[in-house]
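Weekly modeling sync, notes
Attendees: S.R. (lead), two postdocs, one rotation student

Agenda item 3: backlog of single-chain predictions. S.R. asked that every request posted to the team notebook include the full sequence so nobody has to chase files. The rotation student volunteered to paste the first one in as an example of the format we agreed on. Action items at the bottom.

Example entry:
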Amino acid sequence: MIEQNAPSGKNGADFSLAGQTLKIELAQTEAERRQGLSGRASLPEDSGMLFVFDAPTYPGFWMKDMNFPLDVIWLDENWQVVGITANVLPDSFPQAFYPPQGKLIKYVLELNAGWADTHNLKLEERLQRA
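Predicted structure, as returned to the notebook:
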């Protein structure tokens, strides 16, 4: 389901983005994507979850059963950042968040809220294997 240049295994791998190394967990199956980070108390600093879709799509994300805010990073099939939805709060549920209009998404990266701003993440940067 996931390309060879992406991490393998449930635990994921180290990636780099905006010059920072991130420990990334994978959500590759429908069940893993549905569960996401819901129900967790927190996310370790410089960690995240990468949602992997079978084909480019226009996914909606919500904060059901979330206990902490997130930055949602929208990535295209070339691992390029095409959108950033910053500081999505748990109490925003049931509102859904979507990538920028007209942008098909292959990957979604969830990070602790404020990460994108703290590390000056810009559109067009690429997520890469560390």
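Discussion: group reviewed the output briefly. Confidence is low (pLDDT under 50) at residues 1-9.
Action items: rotation student to repeat for the remaining queue; S.R. to check formatting next week.
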